[in-house]
Design goal:
Layout: H1 2-21, H2 53-88, H3 90-105, H4 109-120, H5 124-133, H6 137-150, H7 154-161, H8 166-202, H9 214-221, H10 230-263
Helix pairs in contact: 1-2, 1-10, 2-3, 2-5, 2-6, 2-8, 3-6, 4-5, 6-8, 8-9, 8-10, 9-10
Length: about 260
């Protein structure tokens, strides 16, 4: 558990401070040094334009993790609000929200994101919108399920009989109960957002050149995959290790919460 959290902390630190540690300008083209092997000057080598791969990885961490954090937070807010509306708004509101949720869940999220990004065009704004639209539904289902289970609790019934508004009830009685479960869901969705950003970047719909991002680094390296496979290995490892660490941290958090609830 500690090692996984330490690894997650390392990636977060790289996203925050990695650009300060980059030894070279990640966008500087250096044709004479193109496709250089790892060396003292180029720790991880250079790409087809002679740009330092290590510097691009460090700068790319800010884009990949930063955008994934933003997408997952926006999805968390939208999904939680939708779930609370379904739980507190009555049968009609519940039916509308859940049918909308089921409609979105009927389509594979990555394919839907690709379609949306393709319609809107390549760019960071389209990337954020596409992944947010396809990533809020799981939060809504969890928030609705827990919200419905809380309706018969004594303190919620008393608050309703006291004439408190649904907003006040949700703020003081629902959200504290929702946060632990939503945090576990958020870790998984954060990892999925990193994968989504990398996938859209690899397809050309993500962060546009010359800004480095792990998915766009994979896109740039695909042409030279046979001759210099390290170009693809480094960003690929970054994505795999980061997503795996976040998923393991989420599993550990879920187990800890389940154990705490069992003891309680």
């Amino acid at each position: 558990m500690r090692s996984v959290l330490a690894l997650v902390f390392v990636f977060v630190a790289l996203a925050l401070f990695g650009p300060m540690l980059a030894p070279h300008d990640p966008t500087q083209i250096n044709i004479p040094n193109r496709l250089s092997a790892p060396s003292g000057d180029w720790v991880l080598g250079t790409d087809a334009l002679g740009r330092d791969i290590l510097s691009r990885l460090l700068h790319g961490a800010r884009w990949s993790l930063g955008l994934a954090f933003l997408v997952s937070i926006i999805g968390l807010i939208i999904g939680t609000l939708a779930g609370l509306v379904a739980a507190l708004g009555g049968k009609l509101a519940d039916w509308i929200v859940m049918r909308t949720t089921d409609t979105f869940l009927a389509f594979p999220d990555l394919i839907a994101a690709v379609v949306i990004a393709g319609i809107l065009g390549a760019g960071t704004g389209s990337l954020i919108f596409a992944l947010t639209v396809t990533g809020w539904m799981r939060y809504a289902r969890v928030a609705r399920g827990i919200g419905l289970s809380l309706q018969t609790r004594g303190y919620v019934v008393q608050a309703r009989l006291a004439g408190l508004s649904p907003f006040v009830i949700a703020r003081w009685h629902y959200l504290p109960s929702l946060l632990p479960s939503l945090t576990v869901v958020w870790t998984g969705m954060f990892a999925r957002a990193i994968l989504g950003i990398s996938a859209l970047g690899f397809l050309g719909f993500g962060v546009q050149p010359p800004m480095p991002e792990w998915g766009t680094m994979l896109l740039d390296a695909r042409i030279h995959m046979r001759s210099t496979p390290l170009q693809m290995i480094w960003p690929g490892l970054a994505v795999v290790i980061c997503v795996l660490a976040i998923n393991l941290a989420g599993d550990a958090l879920r187990d800890a919460l389940a154990e705490q609830e069992h003891e309680g």
